[in-house]
Design a protein that fits this description.
The complex is a heterodimer of chains A (169) and B (117). By secondary structure, chain A is an all-alpha fold. The longest helix of chain A is centred in the middle third of the chain and has 25 residues. Chain B is mostly helical and 117 residues long. Chain B has a domain of 66 residues: Helix Hairpins, CATH 1.10.287.3510. Chain B is 71% helix and 0% strand. Chain B is elongated. Classes of the chains: A mainly alpha (169), B mainly alpha (117). At the A-B interface, α1, α2, α3, α5 and α6 of A face α2, α3 and α4 of B.
Amino acid sequence: MAPVATPFFFYLLSAIMLIGGIAVITRKNPVHSALALIVTLLAQASIYLMLYAPFVAGVQIILYAGGIMVLFLFVIMLVSIERSMKERQFNSQWVVGMIAATALGGLFIAVYTKGKSIFPDHALSVVEDNNTQEVAKLLYGQYMFAFEIASLLLLVAIIGAVVMAKKRI
Amino acid sequence: MLAARNSGLVPDMETMLHITTLHYLVLGAALFLLGVIGVLTRRNVVIVLMSIELILNAVNLNLVAFSRLWGGVHGQVFAIFIITDAAAEAAVGLGILIAFFRNKETVNIDEVNLLKW
């Protein structure tokens, strides 16, 4: 199936992502930041769909927007936000932080304008309808060891989170 | 095809209308920059953790864009591992935040200064 109106969707979704990202870092209320991050993650899942990665888009919506952000919202409600909203929002070294971020942005601009020509512009003939099967072939084949290590990492994270949040160990 | 008639900083209409890999990479770089600004300038720990999630998402976008460019799904598998790792790290980070809040009744990282000399 040929893609339709790709520039329109790309610019619309990237505008939603960037506005959501700016809302995450500037809002005073952490609940607003979390909701803006959910919008950013959903727009990013749509960009994954544009990049012919439907499995990663599904994982992003279910795990990231539906799991991690719900965890963030639970913890925001456990921690009192009334007092933190009345205080100063930006810390005392924000000037140095902005200078460092500007330097990083200049580095990115330099890299992407000088190195524009190393990315070939051809359209690959990618098989479009077996994405989940291809991901499964790699995940359970070549990257099986990394898969097992990832499950071990999740076990350690569960134990760690429970121990950190207990009142008396 | 991307013959730049200027110094390359200002895109012309043809570059803007044909979406290549570079567009996705620049979008990922912009998201990364927003996450870095959030980590460096905010006082609230929850928002710092959410900016870290923005940084991880920018890296994921780069990986999936390159996976589309070169064929094969290796980049997508790596992106799935990064999402798994982000879940684990968010859980542990929020556990630490809850323990910290139970001790000091505040969520400002400026007040974590007991070890300051």
